[in-house]
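To the team - 4'-deoxy-4'-aminopyridoxal-5'-phosphate complex, inputs and output below.
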Amino acid sequence: MEPDIWYNGEFIDHEDAEIHVLSHVIHYGSSVFEGIRCYDTDQGSAVFRLEEHMQRLVDSAKVYRMDIPFDLDELVEAVVDTIERSGLRGCYIRPVVLRGEGPMGVNPLENPVETFIAVWEWGEYLGEEALEKGVDVEVASWNRMAPNTFPAMAKAGGNYLNASLVKMNAIKNDKMEGIMLSTDGYVAEGSGENLFVVKNDTLYTAPTGLSILPGITRASIIALAEERGYEVEEKKIPREALYTADELFFTGTAAEVTPIRTVDDYTIGSGSRGPVTKEMQDAFFEVVEKGHDPHDWLTFVDVP
Ligand code: PMP
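Output:
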């Protein structure tokens, strides 16, 4: 049986979590959501940076003028309750806030705001082998949206039409992922991941102003790298710096820390996972697998 889904403050059966075809979200993409992971760590089940994810959800909703009738603490508690009720020790967590059924038309202000939280079991997004060997990617022909088109810092459903185009093209071209450039031609991010370039032991990543989603894994890797003595620069990265990098890796809730071995068929570094990428993976997995939590990033949940 699939786990129960939290809906506006109550639990409902998985099968009953339905919306009407005339809901605003279906026609106009009016949802905001999160992707969060609960890990079965050596110290017990724990959610990685739960509060930061839910704060990003609240911020995304604010940008789209959606009033969620629950505060941050209540939403955090709702996630914990949903996991505990599911009995899943490790899972992917998907809170989504959407505009439901109401007057038909672009204006969403009269449509109800509905909040759902679902959880399910999920393995590595880009494949287990990818974490070790790395993935083949391309520079996408679609750009990341310009800052004055869609708010890139909001994790909104509609943004993922752009991301889907990037991902579909990559798959059609036998690549695992596409790297989007900003509208002024600088490296932005993958369809569902942030990107790091390693060159001469310095880590570079696009600044948050450059139409990227401010990833929570990205922020965690910046902190872990700096603690280990690496310099990290958030700056505009030209496309060719991808091809000449010593190492490249993606970060994200789903992708975790995934090495990139080729871009547009250029071999990156040695063509397999580099030492800095490995060090960052180890640092990340020390937290989420071993449950070693000096930063207070884990919220432990009670799953027997
Ligand atoms: N960029 C995009 C477009 C994403 O969808 C994601 C996944 N949420 C990320 C970056 C990575 O963000 P996070 O580390 O918070 O999962």
